[in-house]
Amino acid sequence: MKKYIYFLLIVSLGIISTGSVKILNLNVPDLIEVGTSDIELDCQYNYEEDEKVQLDIKWYFENDPSPFYQWVPGQMDRPQVIGDTFKDHLDLNHSVSDKDDFKRYRALLIKEPTVNLSGVYTCKVSSFLSEDVKQKEMIIYSPASSVIFEQDRSQNGHQVNITCHANGIFPQPQIKLTWGSYQFDDSNALVTLEDEGHYDIIVHRLVDHSDIPSKTTFGCILTIPGIDYEVREESVYYHRDGRRYMSERRRSGGAGLGKYPTHILLVLSLASLFSDMMIF
């Protein structure tokens, strides 16, 4: 009797273990630049033959408990999009080149991705017997649309106002002003989230002319934490007794992950030469 019960237990466990939906690979790009035309997110999985009519494939975004994409191969000819976030960004006719009809619509094709689609993507494949879940974060970054770096005399004429302003950038950037090899504390930077999801950031410092040698270098460094993105602006500042008479400006960077060549821009500000020059 005990042997019979033991045999039934083994058989029962064997039946339960046949449910083995398994996600083999979740292909989600780590980082892409806004403006990329199409992105494919692929959830590659395997299943047991007796599970295929029960398969349910769902994609989730961030912490939303409701999926934004669902496909039940045994019941639906095409997948469906749920909610408004991805409504205009998914190609529901996109299929992977797989001969298995029960894997055909496992992948997403996101059209014209925007920064608000940055976040954690979760794929869940389930049947009545088992399920598997994997997730991965994708960041859609936007380089700064403009970076303005300026140095001007303050109203009292005894200081230099150093200002760096960048906008149209995502994710939230960091910005630092530099004086030679010294970096100022950036805690007074003002960061604003714009309506379209990009960031605007500005920082400024006042430096006494009495502390500045006749030739010095001021700079601005704009970065996005966690991303290989950096823009540097530098200005070689010349003055006599508090009056600027010439400046040389350099810009470098703006490349993301080495995809674009670093460029250097050198500008000699002749306007400053004539407007601020003092001749003794």
From TrEMBL:
<dbReference type="InterPro" id="IPR007110">
    <property type="entry name" value="Ig-like_dom"/>
</dbReference>
<dbReference type="Pfam" id="PF07654">
    <property type="entry name" value="C1-set"/>
</dbReference>
<protein>
    <submittedName>
        <fullName>(salmon louse) hypothetical protein</fullName>
    </submittedName>
</protein>
<feature type="domain" description="Ig-like">
    <location>
        <begin position="35"/>
        <end position="141"/>
    </location>
</feature>
<dbReference type="InterPro" id="IPR003597">
    <property type="entry name" value="Ig_C1-set"/>
</dbReference>
<dbReference type="InterPro" id="IPR036179">
    <property type="entry name" value="Ig-like_dom_sf"/>
</dbReference>
<feature type="domain" description="Ig-like">
    <location>
        <begin position="143"/>
        <end position="237"/>
    </location>
</feature>
<dbReference type="InterPro" id="IPR013783">
    <property type="entry name" value="Ig-like_fold"/>
</dbReference>
